[in-house]
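**User:**
Make up any protein.

**Assistant:**
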Amino acid sequence: MPPVTAAATAPPVPVPAPALVSAPAPVLAPAGPPRPGELPWVQARMRAHAAPRPWPARTVPLADAVGLTLADALRTPHPLPAFDTAAMDGYAVAGPGPWRVRGEVRAGTVWAGALAAGECVEISTGAQVPAGACAVLPVEAALAGDDGLVYGPVPPPGRHIRRAGEDAPAGSLLAPAGTPVCPALLGLAASCGHDTLTVRPAPRVRVLVTGDELDHAGPPGPGRVRDALGPALPALVAALGGECREVRHVHDRPAGSLAAAVHGTRDAEVVVVTGSTSVGATDQLRRLLAEAGARPVVDTVACRPGHPMLLAELPSGGWVVGLPGNPYAALVAAHTLLGPLLAGLCGRALAPLPLVPVTGSLRPAPGLTRLVPVTWDGAGARIAAGHGAAFLRAAAVADALAAIPPDWTDGAPAPLLLTR
């Protein structure tokens, strides 16, 4: 099996190691050649990320910042730790022993004065080390005598003391702008004394689900299909860094219904339209965007499934992402265009793609990228069974989507779009 290598644009990232799907790998049928005007998949992803300017920043309390993106670098205004700190419970000692106990110091308090050689104070983990102390003797290595002296081995200078600024000197860069705000970053900011963070808010997204054939509750009726994207897309939008404000179901006809839905409100920066992206009789989106004077950014992508996807900027400054109506194809398109667009609006870097060996039966097609669900065991990925453009079984249990290039062979490396 070939070794794991890094994509030229992004280093590998750690990925959890779930169990492999036990079903045999499917033999995937070949896809047709790329159509004229289809943008290569890698370029489409990069173009979607580069298209927007980052959303304006705002300052929010720490509690409101989780899940958002740093607009400014996080720095510490003072050293971390701010003072010499005991790393163990025991005795802060000065010089060789035995040591006479002068008092005690607990976390959050300060012992006034300075220790002379042969003196010590009882100290708790996290407490400030008194002046004159050269080390901390752990309590399990110390013997307190009835004579008021503490006996034990002389610890090396600096032993069990965290020096001021050891973790970060004052002014240190702790996290660059563009970093997602996670719980650990909130704790880091608080430890530096920050009460607020300057962040870019999550872009607001409105989802329009088209298709007169869709049922929205219960089993579908004869000749009809249950809507899978209406329930799935709000969670996917959130996972990609956006805030879903609304899911609206739009009829295929009359022709003006989709136009009214796209332009009807101003409460979202991004409108996602499912279906209506192809060239059938009921597919209106491209004509609607052309009539509105929208600027095309991506119009079809050389990948399968999901190629009739699109991205356009409206004259108002809003964005429209067109996804195919088939559920798995829509998932592929969302990761290809919507995710990078939201990252660009947030000021985040484009997510890195680890390059790992992929095994399974698949027939690549000239000029096309095949996006297939894979399971990942920490060393390599395997194509998961049970998917097609309209079937989400494999995607539901997969760890990633493998972007299979046209020249791939079984066991060769391919980039992974992580989905868990």
Observations:
- Residues 327-346 form the longest helix (20 residues).
- The helical segments are 41-50, 183-191, 229-239, 256-263, 285-291, 327-346, 393-397.
